[in-house]
Amino acid sequence: MILLFRRLAATWTVTVPILAVAVLALAWGRTIPLVVVVIAALFLAVSVLAAVHHAEVIAHRVGEPFGSLVLAVAVTVIEVALIISLTASGGPAASSLARDTVFAAVMLTCNGIVGLSLLVAALRRRVAVFNAEGTGAALATVATLSTLSLVLPTFTTSSPGPAFAPAQLAFAALASIALYGLFVLTQTVRHRDYFLPVETDEDGGEAAEHASPPSTRATVASLALLLSALVAVVGLAKVESPAIETAVSAAGLPQSAVGVVIALLVLLPETLAAVRAARRARVQVSMNLAFGSAMASIGLTIPTIAVASLWMKGPLLLGLGPTHIVLLGITVVVATLTVMPGRAHLLQACVHLTLCAAFLLLAASP
Known about the structure:
By secondary structure, this protein is an all-alpha fold. It has helices at about 1-25, 35-60, 65-90, 95-125, 130-155, 165-190, 215-250, 255-280, 285-310, 320-340, 345-365, and strands at about 130, 345. The chain has one domain (about 1-365): A middle domain of Talin 1 (Up-down Bundle), CATH 1.20.1420.30. It contains eleven helices and two strands, in the order ααααβααααααβα. The chain is globular.
């Protein structure tokens, strides 16, 4: 039975990206009926899962912490593509989409993914153990990038509204990509041991790591299928963008909810990967995924959207409002207290999940 499930998994992860590209070719540039919209949405969702599956195959080949990096970058490429697609087609109404999506990604990763991972680990082993040095460095980088890109624009005076002046935006973009690049160098070269899972004596903690890594041929195939899945996600997001915005408006939700929908969509597979790692007592991998994804979301999205703003019409609104600044501030404080000891328990998990629930509530009802 297990062999059958593995064969089915291998089959759908190969066929879905190919079929999704075919659906994209048929729907691109056309006004499509509701049935096709639903089909495209299903292929979009499953393509995200397929993309992360193939990223996991590549990750297993290259090992940690490179594996977490591959997953984070793959998810962020999807996110950036969705932001660009929806911003380009949304006009002035989408001027705050990048801010809303990046902030949603930060809140969902630093509270949602971290909270769920700690909850699963604490329920199974009472205490979740991870490396405070590596996780603390990741959190510090996320906090700095969030402040530079999302908080400062609210208080600058060179440009009207919560937006950067051109020189300020250029600095924020360069600082974001530089800090992210430096973090990747630290994570993968200079201090790689800070980001490796903490060894425990719990049964089953390392079982999954004893599986043989995929062959070079399988890794190359997964790389090709990963690229195909990403192309499908980008294109189908463009096809689905009118339906997403219409659904948000019909539900009476604010325009900022579009960014939350995007973040929920692209982070769902990574959330599953983080929870699976926590179940195997590899909480450090979960932390790498959570904070690495938040960091990549800012470090790659802000420079990309800064370049795209050169030809996009309308202002680029990046500054957060008072409510969101308060949520970001308490998230940084709580995450710092969680990370410092290198150990967390059930209460800390529930605190993070409560902050995530508060963010989702305020996104639907500001």
